[in-house]
């Protein structure tokens, strides 16, 4: 599984370590990801996602729908593969 936030799409970036003598060596900056259970009110279920801590702050402020809409994703990005394509039966 890639180190990537499902809400914002942010991932690992690379660059250079620069020493005092300006020697450059490659390095990576990893994103701060956590596993979090989020309740989807529309679907009336919990979803476990790997989300960055920055995106988690945004979710608390704006709400799940607004945060996902701002980043161009859809709620389907949060759904595990086993639930994709399953329709709720009308009662």
From TrEMBL:
Top-rank taxon, per record: Bacteria
One Pfam family matching this protein: Ribosomal_L28
Coiled-coil regions listed in the entry: none
InterPro entries referenced in this protein's UniProt entry, alphabetically: Ribosomal_bL28, Ribosomal_bL28/bL31-like_sf, Ribosomal_bL28_bact-type, Ribosomal_bL28_sf
This protein's UniProt keywords: Ribonucleoprotein, Ribosomal protein
GO cellular-component term (any): ribosome
Gene3D superfamilies cross-referenced by the UniProt entry: Ribosomal protein L28/L24
Family: Belongs to the bacterial ribosomal protein bL28 family.
PANTHER family: 39S RIBOSOMAL PROTEIN L28, MITOCHONDRIAL, LARGE RIBOSOMAL SUBUNIT PROTEIN BL28M
Stored NCBIfam families: L28
Protein name from the UniProt record: Large ribosomal subunit protein bL28
